[in-house]
């Protein structure tokens, strides 16, 4: 029996305030796993002491043990996640509404679980980094390409690491000290990405990670870890949430020095227009 199921069994015996904590825990396990007790209390609208009393009512030693129980639940859910899209096997006359509403739900869940301090730190690292490397393997590769192209509109020295093994090793080994490695790892298995982040940390690079899980093994090598989607989201919905988060991060970076970034964007667009004009003239 999962811990959330245990909460449901004891729900009726809890006080009114404790029931609020219980329901929030069931609905938002990622938040419980990644936030401190006082922050959880603020999100629910109860005191920190109510959160702690809920832990005691569940026969736990405190909030840390609650987090351990919830993380164990989340790990168990990850193992059961089906890779197939849930809509493939059934006809749905409201397919457009169904798919887009689930994308919206994935984005809304991301808003709830993102730690604002981590988000702000990611923006600061994007703004202050001299050289920025972007990594995304397999199904995360299109998201890495989206981030690379978006950042390249506003700043210099943005490089997307190519997926070939020899290229990865060479690029990581040539990485400047204090460079920033931005990793997008949305798949459930990411052992190779874990190895690459370790190599980057050995080069004294900063590492920002967007991942599908707050308990990802990559978190130990990350200076900033941002979680998107939910445990029940299909990969396509998680990717949608990741792109929305990327958009917010880039907007935040630009806001650090709007004049600098908009000037670079204008020059970049002008160079692109001149290049296109030159290419066309070759065929006249």
UniProtKB/TrEMBL annotation:
Gene3D superfamilies: Glucose-6-phosphate isomerase like protein, domain 1 (3.40.50.10490), Winged helix-like DNA-binding domain superfamily/Winged helix DNA-binding domain (1.10.10.10). The keyword ATP-binding does not apply. GO terms for molecular function: carbohydrate derivative binding; DNA binding; DNA-binding transcription factor activity. GO terms for biological process: carbohydrate derivative metabolic process. The keyword Cytoplasm does not apply. Keywords: DNA-binding, Transcription, Transcription regulation. InterPro entries: Homeodomain-like_sf, HTH_RpiR, RpiR-like, RpiR-like_SIS, SIS_dom, SIS_dom_sf, WH-like_DNA-bd_sf. It holds the Pfam family SIS. Residues 1-77 form the HTH rpiR-type domain. This is HTH rpiR-type domain-containing protein. It comes from Ureibacillus sinduriensis BLB-1 = JCM 15800.
């Amino acid at each position: 029996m999962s811990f959330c199921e245990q909460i449901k069994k004891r729900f009726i015996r809890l006080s009114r305030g404790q029931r609020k904590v219980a329901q929030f825990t069931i609905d938002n396990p990622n938040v419980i796993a990644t936030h401190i007790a006082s922050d959880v209390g603020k999100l629910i609208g109860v005191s920190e002491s109510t959160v702690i009393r809920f832990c005691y009512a569940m026969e736990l030693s405190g909030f840390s043990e609650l987090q351990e129980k919830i993380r164990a639940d989340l790990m168990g859910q990850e193992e059961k996640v089906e890779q197939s899209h849930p809509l493939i096997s059934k006809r749905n006359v409201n397919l457009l509404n169904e798919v887009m509403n689930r994308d919206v739900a994935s984005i809304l869940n991301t808003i709830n679980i993102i730690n604002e301090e981590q988000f702000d730190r990611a923006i600061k690292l994007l703004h202050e980094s001299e050289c920025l490397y972007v990594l995304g393997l397999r199904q995360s590769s299109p998201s890495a390409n989206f981030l690379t192209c978006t950042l390249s509109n506003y700043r210099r020295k943005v490089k997307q690491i190519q997926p070939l093994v020899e290229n990865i090793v060479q690029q990581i080994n040539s990485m400047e000290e204090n460079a920033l490695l931005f990793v997008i790892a949305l798949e459930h298995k990411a052992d190779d990405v874990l190895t690459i982040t370790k190599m980057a940390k050995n080069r004294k690079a900063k590492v920002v990670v967007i991942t599908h899980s707050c308990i990802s093994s990559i978190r130990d090598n990350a200076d900033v870890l941002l979680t998107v989607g939910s445990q029940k989201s299909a990969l396509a919905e998680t990717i949608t949430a990741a792109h929305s988060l990327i958009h917010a991060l880039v907007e935040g970076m630009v806001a650090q020095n709007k004049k600098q970034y908009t000037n670079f964007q204008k020059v970049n667009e002008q160079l692109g227009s001149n290049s296109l004009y030159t290419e066309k003239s070759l065929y006249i």
